[in-house]
Amino acid sequence: MTKTRRPTRIQARNRAAILDAALEVFSAHGFRGATVDQIAAAAGLSKPNLLYYYPSKEAIHEALLSRLLDTWLDPLRAMDPAGEPLEEILAYVRRKLEMSRDYPRESRLFANEIVQGAPRILGFLTSDLKALVDEKAALLESWMDEGRIARVHPYHLIFSIWSLTQHYADFDVQVRAILDGDDPFETAPAFLDNLYRRLLTSA
């Protein structure tokens, strides 16, 4: 049996540099606006050297998305059926907001892909993502049936959490301009906690 050769430290470092540079370029310009030349320049590599690791722009983008998508599901996966419903939902809101704070480029990469019609991740949206959202929507509905949280549309509740948290990453420049440069992540957690607490405990 042929063993897969492990990449050298230089190869691993170059791959990481390419993906980090590509994340910057794709999140700024979208898939269509990004070029291999831009990515190579941002990575500090020649174009032929970059193409040694990834044969095309599509291959780089696919590698980035593959790395991102699994991470993207983690905050929702962590919603615990055995936990206290309101606190589980509020914890999910906090995790999503923390992702916007810590991974803004990844959020914009994802948003750009969706805006373009999700040509490279539609299968993921209709399989892995849909299955997980269906599972958690059913959990939310069961908590509503038990009278443990107020009744709202479970899917739109999840959509609203996505919108209200990812906005801080995708529209960061606009948010900071309106807040005169103040850090939105200092005040957003308390606002969102209060908003969803009121929504989910109202009669």
Automatic annotation (TrEMBL):
Family matches, as PROSITE patterns: HTH_TETR_2
Ranges for domain HTH tetR-type: 12-72
Molecular function in Gene Ontology: DNA-binding transcription factor activity; transcription cis-regulatory region binding
Domain of life according to the entry: Bacteria
InterPro entries: Homeodomain-like_sf (IPR009057), HTH-type_TetR-like_transc_reg (IPR050109), HTH_TetR (IPR001647), Tet_transcr_reg_TetR-rel_C_sf (IPR036271), Tscrpt_reg_YcdC_C (IPR013573)
A biological process term (GO) from this entry: negative regulation of DNA-templated transcription
UniProtKB keywords: DNA-binding
Transmembrane regions listed in the UniProt entry: none
UniProt KW Cytoplasm keyword: no
DNA-binding region: 35-54
Listed name of the protein: TetR/AcrR family transcriptional regulator
Organism: Jhaorihella thermophila
